[in-house]
Specification:
Number of strands: 13
Radius of gyration: 18 Å
Largest sheet: 13 strands, antiparallel
Helix content: 10-25%
Number of helices: 4
Distance between the termini: 39 Å
Shape: globular
Order of helices and strands: HEEHEEEEEEHHEEEEE
Length: about 260
Amino acid sequence: MDATEFLGLTPTHNPMRWYLPITDGIATREKFLFGGCGLGAAVAAMEAVCERPVVWAAAQYLSFAMAGSIMDLDVTVAVSGKRTSQARAVGRVGDREILTVNAALGSKDIPIDEQYRTMPDVPDPADCPSRGELVEDTGSIMTRFDMRLALGTPWDRFDGTPLPDGRSALWVRMPDVDMSAAALAILGDYVPFGISQSQGRWMPSNSLDNTIRVQRLVPTEWVLCDVRIDGIHDGFGHGDVYLWSSDGTLLATASQSAVLHNPRT
């Protein structure tokens, strides 16, 4: 299936308007829309409207869309040039704005094809333990992923020991979902996971934003989410997620800031 089907994103008679039912399958354990799914839905809608691939997209999260509600997603194409379009999508539940996403879309035939970053040396997914559940979970989006902890500490072994370099990694597989910019946008939302890993304890946080920059799309069953926390200060954390295919191809990079809440043990 493609990401549009995975998310449940649905077109309307107006080609610029889509709607997204907020089901448990795209929500967090707290029953609000998972931020990566909001960005992924906007990416999918803008690609369909512009008929061009997303190069980058940046979401600002403004409010929560709770499970059981429906988010309307309106796309505006601000500029459409010969090779590049600039667009935005605004998601609302009723009159309440949930997120705003700005994006550039397009491609150019220029004979330069380079990758300057390398994937970290981590075990293969088959050699990594399944990511354990922090709390019992039977219905959130996390139940739709196969996740293996490649670098970091299992939840049940947190003892308050910080990671010296703030770096952790997960292998993630979304069964039967085709590779796309929208799929990668869903998987880029792992800075909050990395913040807890960096502190060696559960540090609840909510994403304020999420930016995805697409490097190259190649088929891969597993994606390595290589999370790098840059720093934490004044109750906010900042970090990046490098998304790698299993053969070491850099698929995309993501970056986020998150507001932290009181740590829990």
